[in-house]
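Translate structure to sequence.
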């Protein structure tokens, strides 16, 4: 696996064409279960968009990393993941900002938060497997924010499940109306290509390009092209697809109630250009973003944005960090001073980074929908709002209750300071959540997936020079607690001191053994809310 060089002296990128304002932005993510083909599709989109010249260029970030050792290898090459956190490319006057969502189920927190920074998503489904666990989880996050979703049923070039069965599964499991728009002609060994049901274009799998059929499904030329048997089977299924399911409705799609479905193959590059056209034509431009003072409209002339991701220690020697900011309004120009609402201080953004495939360079300007990286030394945290002289705060960035809890044991007690620093930094980055018990001095850390613990130990050792191990605690469930009545909350905390810890922001968190215990305590404390998510402020 080769590491991608990060330019320390980025070359200045020329200012973008001033006429291309925010309405040309399409900021989106790909959600999928590992192995469904997200990396392959990303690569083909970048190829189609001219951002890379060769297949294989984004492969290094692929999720061949189920095994720990592989993951560590990827971790060493973290440069790759930062440059691919956002991939910007331009085609036919549309600026695509593709935000990477790490596919590994262990890193879902980061993934979830990335979804707060997009306006739409592509859901990739393996034609042989249908909806899988991680897809469903990510979909639920999209639904919380009514993010419109285009479904790409991938790997149609090989044996898979019946397309109708897949459509029904999406409709039933995700409670979404499905509208097939690109339909397969045969499948597996009999796969001949894809057919655009609205445009009446046949995209040949045999390398014969795309052909339009004026007469649609009844066009004799289509019969001739496909051959009698294939045509008969295709015609029946296409007719059923068109008549038995909803027609594409752009409004229902944008409202998040309907998903257009494209059958294709990322590997063979079938229907990927159609998918891209679809995003360009129908996916929403930057949408208003929620704030504590009401939605912020992208047409607003004052710059605003929020940090949805922080990546620390790109270069351990310099303790640098890159904060990823999604702009929500205004016209940002390099060198601008923006207000950091949390601290009330102004920060000059003199080195905004713009990402193209594996390169990063300086950008001169950005509009709503764009994502830039701001190098900083810890000022910017996930959830922070940047504005041009205003004091509102963007809302809705979630933190999730950890599913794995461990006590941190330091090998060398002299390294307490390093450990604290490391835990604070990595908690800010969102890799881990840190809890402080009422009694005792040992930290408790919480992660969403156990693999994060390996990463945590490796990074604390490598970047902060403190060796740690993790010990099981008797708790497996954590919930943020709150109550209408301050007195009731205080009483509950007092009655449960050993089980209440404090998070980084000093919020009380209740720990218990399992879901059964949780149900028991909820039942007996109706005035207390036990939250599995909380908003980052
Ligand atoms: P991921 O990022 O979602 O985890 O998936 P990735 O793109 O890495 O794809 C997972 C595997 O599926 C890869 O095979 C990839 O080549 C294959 N694949 C992706 N799209 C298609 C498709 O449209 N058709 C077919 N037939 N296969 C597809 P692999 O053997 O695991 O890796 P590799 O050796 O090909 O890199």
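Result:
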């Amino acid at each position: 696996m080769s590491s991608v060089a990060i330019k320390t002296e980025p070359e200045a990128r020329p200012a973008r064409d001033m006429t291309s304002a925010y309405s040309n932005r399409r900021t989106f993510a790909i959600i999928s279960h590992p192995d469904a083909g997200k990396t392959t599709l990303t690569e083909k989109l970048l190829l189609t968009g001219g951002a890379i010249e060769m297949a294989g260029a984004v492969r290094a970030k692929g999720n061949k990393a189920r095994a720990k050792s592989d993951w560590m290898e990827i971790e060493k090459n973290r440069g790759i993941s930062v440059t691919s956190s956002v991939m910007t490319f331009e085609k036919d006057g549309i600026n695509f900002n593709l935000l990477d969502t790490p596919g590994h189920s262990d890193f879902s927190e980061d993934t979830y938060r990335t979804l707060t920074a997009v306006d739409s998503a592509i859901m990739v489904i393996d034609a042989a497997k249908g909806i899988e666990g991680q897809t469903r989880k990510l979909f639920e996050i999209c639904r919380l924010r009514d993010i419109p979703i285009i479904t790409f049923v991938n790997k149609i070039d090989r044996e898979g499940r019946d397309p109708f069965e897949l459509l029904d599964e999406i409709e039933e499991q995700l409670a979404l109306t499905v509208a097939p728009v690109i339909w397969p002609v045969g499948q597996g060994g009999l796969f001949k290509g894809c057919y655009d049901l609205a445009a009446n274009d046949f995209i040949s799998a045999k390398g014969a390009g795309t052909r339009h059929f004026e007469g649609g499904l009844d066009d004799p030329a289509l019969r001739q092209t496909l051959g009698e048997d294939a045509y008969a089977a295709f015609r029946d299924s296409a007719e059923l697809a068109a008549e038995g399911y909803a027609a594409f409705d752009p409004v229902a799609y944008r409202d998040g109630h309907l998903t257009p479905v494209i059958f294709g193959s990322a590997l063979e590059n079938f229907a990927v250009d159609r998918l891209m056209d679809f995003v360009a034509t129908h996916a929403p431009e930057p949408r208003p973003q929620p704030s504590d003072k009401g939605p912020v409209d992208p047409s607003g002339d004052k710059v605003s944005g929020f940090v949805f991701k922080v990546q620390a220690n790109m270069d351990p020697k310099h303790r640098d960090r890159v904060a990823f900011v999604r702009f929500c309004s205004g016209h940002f120009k390099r060198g601008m001073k923006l207000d950091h609402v949390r601290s009330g201080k102004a920060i000059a953004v003199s080195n905004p980074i713009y990402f193209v495939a594996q390169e990063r360079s300086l950008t001169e300007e950005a509009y709503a929908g764009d994502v830039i990286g701001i190098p900083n030394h810890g000022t910017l945290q996930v959830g922070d709002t940047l504005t041009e002289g205003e004091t509102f705060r963007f809302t809705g960035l979630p933190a999730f209750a950890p599913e794995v809890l461990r006590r941190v044991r330091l090998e060398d007690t002299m390294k307490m300071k390093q450990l604290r620093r490391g835990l604070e930094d990595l908690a800010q980055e969102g890799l881990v959540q840190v809890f402080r018990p009422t009694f005792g001095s040992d930290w408790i850390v919480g992660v969403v997936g156990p693999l994060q613990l390996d990463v945590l130990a490796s990074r604390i050792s490598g970047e902060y020079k403190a060796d740690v191990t993790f010990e099981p605690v008797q708790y497996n469930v954590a919930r943020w607690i709150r109550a209408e009545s301050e007195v009731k909350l205080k009483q509950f905390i007092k009655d449960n001191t050993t089980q209440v810890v404090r998070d980084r922001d000093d919020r009380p968190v209740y720990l218990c053994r399992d879901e059964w215990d949780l149900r028991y305590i909820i039942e007996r404390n109706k005035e207390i809310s036990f939250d599995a998510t909380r908003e980052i402020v």
